[in-house]
Specification:
By secondary structure, the chain is of the alpha/beta class. The chain is built from 13 helices and nine strands. It is globular, with a radius of gyration of 18 Å.
């Protein structure tokens, strides 16, 4: 079985990782992930369609390397890794992580959260859903992200808003491969190291209806991809078909991927 790195120091440092494709993935359970994710820093939940770009997209790779917590959201990656390495890594999905995150009392305190969403329509659905669930949010707690460039990603407008509001949690719910770069930019420029930046992708959309609703049993059985493909085949079938190349990448590099971009 591959070596497991355990740091026996303070509670915040008692983290268990597995090195996969050169990235230190957290392989504990979901409640532990939430506890660690709320201590501050950058949390990312990379999916298979984005992971296949690790050896081509330098900025995306750097964001994962510098993240404070990288979750095993990709069920495809977990299945392949366990098969190839005779391991027992468990999956912590972005949806499970988000649902546990929303159960924390601080999420019901006004001004504690700030959401970065892909569109104004997504903001409206999110606001309505959160209010129905009893969360004290208003539209000033949300930001519609512009279309970001693939390289040199920065957003001074968003940074100024976060600096002025000082939220405890920033939740980024835009596309994978981009949100991690934005999260790293915010981590490097936010004035407070205690701000937690959660890059959750489409997870909130599964709850609000902005994306196809995925029941928890389907998420546990790693069938979310199937629900998405059935709901919007033109968009998601090609995306997940490209993600199949992760099998080759993982078979070739296993734990350590050289810096092919240097």
């Amino acid at each position: 079985m591959p070596p497991m790195e355990t740091l026996d120091l303070s509670l915040s440092q008692q983290r268990i990782f597995r090195r996969i494709l050169g990235i230190n993935f957290f392989v504990g359970d979901a409640p532990s992930a939430v506890e660690l994710g709320c201590e501050g820093g950058l949390v990312v939940v990379p999916a298979a369609p984005a992971l296949v770009n690790l050896n081509r997209d330098r900025d995306y790779r750097q964001a994962l390397l510098e993240a404070d917590l990288v979750l095993t959201d990709s069920g495809f990656m977990v299945l392949l890794w366990n098969l190839l390495m005779s391991d027992r890594v468990q999956r912590v999905s972005g949806l499970e992580y988000l649902q546990l995150l929303l159960q924390r009392p601080e999420f019901r305190e006004p001004g504690n959260t700030f959401w970065v969403m892909p569109t104004q329509a997504a903001i409206e659905r999110n606001v309505n859903w959160l209010r129905r669930k009893g969360f004290p949010v208003n539209r000033s707690d949300f930001y519609a992200a512009p279309k970001y460039p693939q390289e040199a990603l920065a957003d001074s407008t968003l940074l100024r808003i976060i600096e002025s509001r000082c939220p405890r949690h920033v939740i980024i719910a835009i596309g994978g491969g981009t949100q991690e770069k934005l999260g790293l930019y915010l981590k490097g420029n936010c004035p407070s190291s205690t701000t937690s930046i959660h890059c959750i992708g489409a997870a909130i959309g599964f709850l609000t209806g902005d994306q196809v609703r995925i029941p928890m049993w389907a998420d546990r059985w790693i069938l979310g991809w199937l629900f998405r493909c059935v709901s919007r085949p033109g968009r998601f079938v090609p995306r997940y078909a490209r993600a199949l190349s992760l099998a080759f990448v993982l078979w070739r590099y296993r734990a350590d991927m050289p810096d092919l971009l240097s």
